[in-house]
Amino acid sequence: MTEQLSRGGATGIPAAVLALLGGLFHLVGVAGGAVLLAGDGNLAHALLTFLLHLIVAGTLITGGVGLLLAKSFGRAFTITGAILALLLYLAVLVLGAFGIYFLGLADGTIPVGYTAVLCLPAATTLVLASLPATARWVTGGWS
User: Fold this and answer.
1) Assigned domain for 143 exists
2) Number of alpha carbons in the 13 Å side-chain half-sphere of residue 72
3) How far is CA 79 from the centre of its chain?
4) Record's superkingdom (predicted)?
5) Of 28, 62, 78, 115, which cross-links 19 as Cys (Cβ 3.0–4.6 Å)?
6) Do 131 and 5 form a contact (C-beta atoms < 8 A)?
7) How far is CA 104 from each of CA 57, 66, 117, 120, rounded to the nearest angstrom?
């Protein structure tokens, strides 16, 4: 007897849900960046906050929708969005250690624990989207 491989819905769908939730989280960051842009603070930091959140949110939401539709672009966007999110969180920690604060951080209080917690769903999204079962999901789809 031959063992039939799973179509990957058990990894593709959770990856899509996590990507969509991550995208929604970063949309809140987009709104925060817009508020910073309207304020009297540092324009460069406000613009950086707005644009980085917008890029990550757009990539994750596009990827999540694409994965739900079982499209290969969805997997690629989800993987890219998760990597971008992880790089963004790493940049917050590294630059914050050198006294450079952005993404709404205004002083020396780098939320290390908070940033580490943010890495968990992003890393989980990356792992799930990268699995071979998710690749089978985007080729096999819902059928």
Assistant:
1) no
2) 5
3) 9
4) Bacteria
5) 78
6) no
7) 16, 30, 17, 21
